[in-house]
Amino acid sequence: MNTSVPVQGNSNSLDFVNLDLLDFITPQPNQDKELLALLHFVPGLKEILMLRQVHALEHATVWLLSQPRSSRFISLLPRNFQVDNESLGGLSTEQGFFLYGDVNISDLRRAVTNGLQRLKDGEWNLAVHPRCGTNVSTSMLLTAGCAVGMHLIMPRGLIEQLFGLGIATTLAGELAPYVGALAQRYLTTSVPFNLSIESITKTRDMWGREAHFVKVQWQS
């Protein structure tokens, strides 16, 4: 799945969704491996499970590459503060992920390694990113659903329908970040317990855009 969309711009701080209250399902190191063993006859299941883990690693890498390097500055930041560098973005595949943006390969290697370890160590919030394509899809579905609901509830007059559409749009906009975060957390990403980093190379994606590709391996 498609990750943080690369958009040019300056770094800015984000007060994104705090997922501490969502930890009612604790990821287990063997969960994907056991699911694959149980449903081994399902075609494409391994690729789907691997894609979810790669997606989480991609998000963690973008977060870590966005953080300020000055330890003095970091010490002044509030707890759970995260910085999003909008010039960075990524695209996940079942074999690894493309990282777009001006990045030093040594910094990228460090971010990928640290991101993988920190996700495994329990920093699952790193798997969720506000610019993920999941949020865009979720927002569109919520807007469409709320609009249809308001259309059915409100009177058929033009003014009433426009008023209902405004309510639907506002409601969807308020809910989208939270629902999108939940969708990422439990549907489109997974803690990469089964991944190891194979290589990081500078390449071009299928559209010819320059990128780094982080190739991973599945560990049984």
From TrEMBL:
Name of the protein described by the UniProt record: Uncharacterized protein
Top-level taxonomic group: Bacteria
